Structure formats: structure tokens, C-alpha cells
Fold this protein.
Amino acid sequence: MFSYILRRLLFDVVPAIAVVAVVAFALIHLTPGDPAIVMLGEEARPEQVEALKAQLGLNDPIPVQFGHWLSRVAHGDLGQSIFLHQSVFEGITNSLPVTLELTMFALTIAIVLGVSAGIAAALSRGRVLDKAVMLIAMLGISMPGFYLALLMTFFVGVKLGWLPIAVSVSFSEDPLGNLRDMTMPALVLGFIEAAFISRVTRSSMLDIRSVDFVRTARAKGAPETRVVLVHMLRNALVPIVSTIAILASLLMGGAIIVETIFGVPGMGKLVMSAVMSRDYPVLQGVVLVVAGIYIFINLTADVLCALVDHRIRFN
Amino acid sequence: MTAETLPVMTASETATRGSTGMLGRLRRHPTVAIGLCILLSILTLSLIAPLIAPHDPEAQNIPQRLRPPDPEYYFGTNYLGQDVFSRVLYGGRISLLVGAAVTLLAVGGGTLAGLVAGYFRRLDPIIMRIADGLMAFPSILLAIALGAVMGRALHTVILALGVAYLPRVVRIMRGSVIVVRELEFVEAAGAIGSSAGRVVFKHILPNVMGLVLVQISFIFSSAVLGEAALGFLGVGIPPEIPSWGEIVNDGRNLFAQAPWLTIFAGLAIMLTVLALNLTGDGLRDMLDPRLQKLK
């Protein structure tokens, strides 16, 4: 197991982080024109531009800048926000927990809903329940997140008044109130995610249902629930876990949109305000951290899959 | 990084091709036909928008503002008195144009990179590590960031979304190229002295073409969704050209008073994406003999 993790780290994680770092660094240099002027606006005074250039080290040759930037980032220093009067690191540590709360909440909904709907569909293959689940899942993956969010806000929030339509208290102030506020954004995000998960669950359960060990389990008289939940689900789990890990990026992307709609003070809101105010250091920091999280999640998922299915380790 | 879960064409799949005619296969997979029909209708409506739009999509008519749908204004009017139906028709041109261009870029570039990575073993690790690294960015975040630094314009939106979706295609195409590469006829082509270019384009590419079609459907659907999301967030194409996403964004604050501002454009996005997903799903099933056995 240890050597498997080590191989993954060396050959997959390290190169991926290198690519991520290059892209995040390159972002600032993709601007047409002088990044310092773009960030401060055309009406900025020359001495302001010079000061910002000195602060960001924009006068050095690009490879030198990259070296400096990389060593700073490696020490956890993501630079200074240009508009927020705080460091990028602070900005991210303030908003990341909120996004993690939202995405974990959504993921829980998605896994419960998606896996159970997928199993139900697979067990009733070809019947009405299967068709209904697959139709809803198809609509779910075709639905723009923002559209679902608007419809839910109006019908569930405003018309029926069941759930609040904006986040008004933080988790530390009032945990229960905060969870209530987060329910609608999490439902929106979770439903779309569940649509993907149910499709994968259904197809991997169908793949596994006629395999020898499932027949053996049935033949020796194991109860049907045990056959489904223990024998089949365990073996269908690898594609499901892999899909959930790949969906992590969809979840983060969806969170950006959902957060702006529901006023959730997370990474999405941070990145959108950074885009609007051309606060490139914040933009770089968010991109870097989000990609880092994705890489970590996928490594974890790989290790989990290897624990469930020992064959993977020797591939 | 994570074990590949997406379907890859196998040798037997390529062999079972063409056993029945195109029509017979479409009949067995009606979703493809349904998807393509919806898609063609939407495409036609957008293309002939200038002929059928009852009003100028930009013409403001303040006295007629925020009118609910009626026989004069099918989808109602917005806060400037512009005809929402005409705007949705014209918006489709932008959304579909961006979708098509992004698909061309991502599937074209991705297929090429996938062919190279799958066939040339030495380039494989380099290309795949770059693709894996790019996959770590949520595509919408990468598109937002690229669009933000390059400035808001039609071509930056296309480029940003294209780059964001490209690595997925590379991964999937490489996977199936590796399978096809090991088949005897490819080996034979190499043995009689065909050049690498000939082997890749004449022998391998035609055998992964089905998968390319599947990718076109799915990337097109992601691109339409992605463009809509960028437009909705206000970081897409400049608003003089309203795409479907921007039309939804336009009306979101008036949803309670005038839901028609958002509902129809949102439905247009959904219907397009649904049609593309139906087509993609159907094509994938058509190419997967395992599923045919089950039926």
C-alpha cells in the first residue's frame, strides 16, 4: 500500500502540482498589456503603478519572477490582495471553510440521493421506476445550476416559504440557523451532482449483477438485501468513488455559481469579486488552492479505491 | 489520476460495426433520433432568426416594458420593452456559435493530442501529466480566470472554455487509441512500412471516430452550459450580444414580477443541453456492444 501511495505521489501528484503552479503563475501574464496598469485602472498615477510593480516583482525577468513566486507559495505566502487590505491567504482562510461546508453538505445529499436512486433504478431495470429515475437524472445533468437555483428560490423560497433564500448567519454565530440557510444552496448543488452519481451507480450495479460471485452469494442463500448492499455495492463502489472524485471539480465549479446567487460568503464570492476588481493575486491564490484540493481529493479517492479493490494497487 | 471510468471502445466494438444500416440502428436507439431532431429544430430557428423574429431584439419600447407573454410578444418584454422571444432567438445564435467553436477547439485539439499521446509512447507521459494538471482546475473556474485576465470578448470566451474542456477529451481519446494501437491491423500497417502519420490518421483515427462523435455531443453540451454560466455570472461575452445565459442574468432580479424574462431563455439552454446529452448517450450505447447484449 505504501509503495502504491508513493508511486501515485511521485508520478501523478507532483507533475500535476507543477502544471497547476505554472498555469496559476502564468495567469497574471496573460493580460494584454501591463498587468499593473490593468489591475489599477487606466487612471492610476505612475508612482502607484511603479509601487505595485515593485510589490509584485513585475520588473524582474519572468523565470526569476516564477522562482520567487514559487518559493513564496511553498512557504504558504500567496501574496497581498490589492483591494481587500488583507493577505490572499487570509481571504482564502476566511472563505474556504464556508465553501467546504456547502460542498460537503451538497455532497452528502448527492451521495445519499444518487446512490440510492441508482440502486433502485438498477434493481427495477426497464420498469417504470428505472425510467423515471433516469429521466429525472437526465434532466438534472441538463439543467444549468443557476437556472435550478432561480426556480428553487422562487418556488420553494418565495412562494412556499419553506427555506430561506440567502445566507444570513455564519456557522460560528448560529450553527443550526446557518445550516438552515445553507439547505437551499446545498440542495441545488446536491441535486445536480446526484444526477451524475445515480447514472454511474446504476450502470456499475448493472455491470456487476451477473458476475459469478453475485450468483454464488444468491445460490448459497444470502438474503437479497445482503447481496445487493454487501456483494454488489462493494464491487460497484470503485467507479462510483472515482466519479465522485472527478465530480469534485464540478462541485467546486457549481459552488462558485450557487454562492453568487445565494450570497454565500465562500470561495465563489471571493473569486467573483476578485474578477470584478481585477485583483489578480486573489484570483491566482484561489485557482491554486482549488486545484490543490482537487488533486488531494483524487489522491484520496485513488487510495480508497485501492483499499476496496486490491487489484488496483498492482496496475 | 483517478482510474478511468469512462467507456473505451474495444476491439470487438469496432468489429461489430455496420452489421445493420444506419436507419436500423437509429430505430433501436431512438434517443439519438430524438436528440438530433430537437437539436436541428433549435439550430434552424436560430439560423433563420432574422426571418422569423417578430421584433428587432435590440429595439427598446419603454411604454411596452415588462409585458407578460401574449400573442404580440410570445415570451413577453423586458424592462426596456425589448421582445424576449426575438432576443431568445438571436441569443441562440451566440450560444450555439460559442458551443460549436468550443467543441471544435476542445474535441479537435483533444483528439489530436490524444492520438499523439496514445500512439507515441515517449510523448504519452508528458502529454498526460499536462492534461492531468489542467484537469485539476474546475473548468468553469479556469474559464472565469482566463476570461478575466484576457478581457471580455467572444474569442476569449471560446478560448477559455476550449482550454478548460480539452484535457477531458485528451484522456478519453488516448484511452481508446491505446486499445486500437494494439490491434493486428495496426501492427500490420506498421509492418508494411506505413508512416506514423498514415497509421495514426488512416488506421487508428477511423476506428475511434465513433468515440469522437460521442465526445462532440458531450463537449457541446458542456460548452453550452459553460457559456451560459459565464454569461450568467457576467463574465462572458460583452452584453451588447445577449446570449441565453446573459438573458437569464438580465431578468434574475425581476424573477418574482416577470418570470418570463428568465424562464424561456433557461428552457432554451436546458432543451439544447438535453438534446445533446440524449444524442451523446444514445451514440455511446450504440457503440457499446455490452449494452446491446443486455437488451
